[in-house]
Design goal:
Blueprint (H helix, E strand, L loop, with lengths): L8 H14 L4 H17 L3 H8 L5 H16 L8 H6 L6 H18 L3 H23 L3 H7 L1
Helix pairs in contact: 2-3, 2-4, 2-6, 6-7
Length: about 150
């Protein structure tokens, strides 16, 4: 007989939150990260106009949704309710090269704000996967084929 232990979703979320906490990542840090990052996105000459067209008015709801998104990614929180792929597919101006800019801005924001170097690595690993998924959804070119073309 196998000694396999099945962990509940609540146990997995608790473990995620504890692991993130050891890196100094909590809800307060995620709020700082999102606010700082999107200030930089709005100021960026490439990304700023794309996001300004997508979110022409009050950024409050978008920032709240992004805080929930990153809390789900980093802490296992369950508040996030969204579909990132269709939302990004609607942005006709968003092209694959923009994801490199997005990742660079995110990385710079992490370097400037993260509570630890491990937190930078933690978030960047997740951000790279998210960017790859969204880029693939928009371009239709799988990352492995993109790498072979370069």
């Amino acid at each position: 007989m196998s000694d396999i232990r099945v962990r509940s979703a609540n146990d997995r979320r608790r473990d995620m939150r504890l692991a993130a906490g050891r890196l100094g990542v909590d809800e307060a840090y995620i709020s700082t990260l999102v606010e700082t990052f999107y200030d930089r996105v709005r100021s960026d000459p490439e990304l700023g106009p794309i996001f300004a067209r997508a979110i022409p008015g009050d950024w409050g709801p978008h920032l709240a949704k992004m805080k929930d998104f990153w809390a789900s990614v980093a802490l296992g929180d369950t508040r996030y309710d969204g579909r990132p792929v269709p939302a990004h597919q609607k942005l006709s101006d968003l092209k694959p090269p923009h994801f490199a800019i997005w990742l660079a801005l995110f990385h710079h924001t992490l370097r400037d704000t993260a509570p630890s170097l491990e937190a930078v690595d933690f978030f960047m690993e997740k951000a790279r996967r998210i960017a790859q998924s969204l880029e693939f959804a928009i371009s239709g070119v799988p990352p492995i084929l993109k790498e072979r073309r370069t």
